[in-house]
Design a protein that fits this description.
Helices cover 53% and strands 9% of the residues. The chain has 23 helices and 11 strands. The structure holds ligand LOHRUJSQ and flavin-adenine dinucleotide (FAD). It holds the Pfam family ACOX.
Length: 666
């Protein structure tokens, strides 16, 4: 019997039809980003302090302390190496362990930057950047997360002392979930109902000190702790998601983040001339970063599954000779290659969203708020789409790796457990899709009033055509025409949105219609988000892309991405009359051909992610393909194998055996 050997991957790499080095640059975004990313990944991989292969075997306390040690080491190395902000953030990323630094840099600092006045930024940002204080972001409460307007915590202005009183009036008002809050943060941006002069003025952010900077004990009036162990071993349990109760805690007036709303010494509330949704700005920022991160998590899972599928052999041999690589099975390809294509699709849409966010930020600074609703819809919708697909994809990759995928040493169970809350945090994915739907229904009703749609809804301006068009695809090759593909996606999305808007108008109130039709609205929102991803991917592959064969590979992936969605949502494409059953069959035929084209390049396409073995953290996904020896070595390292005879033998195995022997003698 010939067993799989490490040569499998070398063979695979020799088959590549494109320049992998050039693809690495495309994946990274630029040569500069590639260089920084590569350097930081290697620094982490070569530092034993950042070891993570024992994480799933540690108890919660040990695990958490281990994370604290790593975070301290990150800060130390960043200082020693004089890393720039960009480099330090990559270093943290490759340490690959949820910890308080994520919230400090990812939410506390952005909240102050986005919501604080210049004066407040000058005061707090230097303290935060030097890490003289550690901050987190406390919005969610035990009783409310999605419904931000339902938050109960109050911030009541006391004009006598020029202070706010932060108070948790009920158990359900306890802040609950914020990362870094439970055990580490010294400060927090708390979202609370502003009350002044006996009147409520909406939800705003307030900086509150939680713990003493001398001995880390909670300050008076603060009850604080960790909310408990979460899903999975290791995984997100490295993070101290916390609760806090404020018992009339007093803070100076200038601790309210006052960029968009000021409270004067007398307690007058002065709203700036900006939309009230600006107070939700940190969420828009973070959702945009989550979209970028989705492609990392997805590509990591896909890298493991593709490499392992090239190593793994099952069946296909008559005489106990060499068996078939499971990557050669069409069913394996049809499950795996769309995920590979999605990883690239999300990478490009993530880059585009970064651009959109920078653009809207620039406009907001110039008091142009016109693109804010679109930025909200795009970040909310793409956050929802990419995280849902990625979470499902990680689980699919686990199944694609058969039994070994279920071992923690495959890296996939922990990756799933760490990733899946992305479908919930920063906005539950369904709640966010309903926000997109609200935007779409508004856009459709504005069309009727003769308003021209802009940005990602520009396609809706072609209303008459999109409502009537029939796809012209008459051969499998026609499905490789960008215009044919885009027309089908745009027509499906538009027809679903129009149907929703039309059906809503049949109800007594728009609110009643919206609530009753929310299932259809979610589908319309997904269809619109898919238009964005598909069109950005098509745009990308129409650009000049350097490197032998790189553009061709991306074109293949682009059409796999689009056509697998047509297959997945064929019900919608057919029921809206955008394509016929025959055209759906032609699209599938083309998809099968594309799988064949990507097959020889699959391993090289995941090599282009440039992941170190440390970052992958997987016996199955190793660069050298030495899967079986690694699985065996890792099994031997399991704490259960520390002794040959297990602890508990004397107490619990021997008596059972003796009892059985006694019984059998009777
Ligand atoms: C890098 C860091 C690592 C990450 C680690 C993870 C850490 C996790 C952190 C967290 O989870 S923090 C907590 C995040 N919480 C949420 O995301 C809550 C989700 N809920 C909401 O965002 C909102 O409450 C809501 C669902 C959007 C509803 O808002 P509201 O009650 O105000 O209702 P509506 O009536 O639906 O909307 C009014 C109006 O406002 C527009 N809008 C809503 N949100 C935004 C926004 N963010 N930006 C701009 N505009 C917004 C909405 O479209 C409506 O507009 P109109 O239709 O009236 O024009
Ligand atoms: C790992 C993790 C880290 C987190 N970190 C932070 C943090 O640092 N800071 C912070 O403030 N928060 C944090 N959160 C909290 C997070 O933001 C909330 O859990 C999230 O916003 C969802 O809110 P919820 O828990 O209230 O869910 P709910 O809104 O209670 O959702 C429950 C169910 O109801 C459905 N639902 C709710 N509303 C509607 C609706 N209008 N229409 C249809 N269906 C609806 C949802 O789809 C879901 O299925 C974190 C959460 C997790 C899991």
């Amino acid at each position: 019997m010939v067993v799989a050997s490490v040569d499998n991957l070398a063979d695979e790499r020799s088959k590549a039809q494109f320049d992998v080095g050039a693809m690495k640059i495309v994946w990274a975004g630029s040569k500069h980003v590639f260089d920084v990313t590569d350097r930081m990944a290697r620094i982490v991989a070569s530092d034993p302090e950042f070891r993570k292969d024992n994480r799933t075997t540690l108890g919660r306390k040990e695990l958490f302390k281990n994370t604290l040690r790593k975070m301290a080491h990150v800060v130390k190395r960043a200082n020693e190496l004089r890393l720039t902000e960009e480099e330090a953030s990559k270093l943290r990323f490759f340490v690959d362990e949820p910890g308080y630094l994520d919230l400090h840099w990812g939410m506390f600092v952005p909240a102050i930057k986005g919501q604080g006045t210049e004066e407040q930024q000058e005061k707090w940002l230097p303290l935060a950047s030097r890490m003289e204080i550690i901050g987190c972001y406390a919005q969610t409460e035990l009783g409310h997360g999605s419904n931000v307007q339902g938050l109960e915590t109050t911030a009541t202005f006391d004009p006598k002392t020029d202070e706010f009183i932060i108070h948790s009036p009920s158990l359900t008002s306890y802040k609950w979930w914020p990362g870094g809050l439970g055990k580490v943060s010294t400060h927090v941006v708390v979202y609370a109902r502003l009350v002044s002069g006996g009147q409520e003025h909406g939800i705003y952010g307030f900086i509150v000190q939680l713990r003493s900077l001398d001995d880390h004990t909670p300050l008076p009036g603060i009850i604080i702790g960790d909310i408990g162990t979460k899903f999975g071993s290791g995984a997100y349990n490295t993070m101290d998601n916390g609760f806090v109760c404020f018992n009339r805690v007093r803070i100076p007036r200038n601790h309210m983040l006052m960029r968009f709303c000021q409270v004067t010494r007398e307690g007058n509330v002065c709203l700036s001339d900006v939309p009230k949704q600006m107070v939700y700005g940190t969420m828009v920022y973070v959702r945009q970063t989550i979209v970028s991160d989705a492609s990392w998590a997805l590509s990591r899972a896909v890298c493991i599954a593709v490499r392992y599928s090239a190593i793994r052999r099952q069946f296909g041999s008559q005489d106990r000779g060499i068996e078939t690589q499971v990557l050669d099975y069409k069913t394996q390809q049809s499950r795996l290659f769309p995920l590979l294509a999605s990883a690239y699709a999300f990478r490009f849409v993530g880059e585009w969203l970064k651009w959109l966010y920078a653009d809207v930020t620039e406009r907001l600074q110039a008091n142009d708020f016109s693109t804010l609703p679109e930025a909200h819809a795009c970040t909310a919708g793409l956050k929802s789409l990419t995280t849902s697909v990625t979470a499902d994809a990680i689980e699919e990759c686990r199944k694609l790796c058969g039994g070994h995928g279920y071992l923690c040493s495959s890296g996939l169970p922990e990756l799933f457990a760490v990733y899946v809350p992305a479908c919930t945090y920063e906005g539950d994915n369904v709640v966010l899709l309903l926000q997109v739907a609200r935007f779409l229904v508004k856009t459709v009703s504005r069309l009727a009033a003769g308003k021209k749609p802009v940005g990602t809804t520009t396609y809706m301006g072609n209303a008459e055509h999109l409502m009537q068009c029939k796809s012209s695809a008459s051969s499998p090759e026609d499905w490789l025409k960008p215009s044919v593909v885009l027309e089908a996606f745009e027509a499906r999305a538009f027809r679903l949105a129009v149907a929703c808007a039309r059906d809503i108008s049949k109800f007594s109130t728009p609110e009643a219609g919206f609530a009753e039709l929310s299932i259809d609205l979610v589908e319309a929102a997904i269809a619109h988000c898919e238009v964005i991803v598909v069109s950005r991917f098509i745009e990308k592959v129409q650009q000049d892309i350097p490197g032998d064969g790189v553009k061709e590979q991306l074109q293949i992936l682009c059409f796999i991405y689009a056509l697998h969605l047509i297959h997945k949502h064929s019900g919608e494409f057919l029921s809206t009359g955008c394509i016929t059953p025959e055209q759906a069959t032609l699209a599938n035929e083309q998809l099968r051909t594309l799988y064949g084209q990507v097959r020889p390049n699959a391993v090289s396409l995941v090599d282009a992610f440039n992941y170190t073995d440390h970052y992958l953290g997987s016996a199955l996904g190793r660069y050298d393909g030495n899967v079986y020896a690694t699985l065996y070595a890792q099994a031997l390292r399991d704490p259960l194998n520390d002794t040959v005879v297990p602890d508990g033998y004397e107490e619990f195995i021997r008596p059972v055996l003796k009892q059985t022997m006694r019984l059998s003698r009777l």
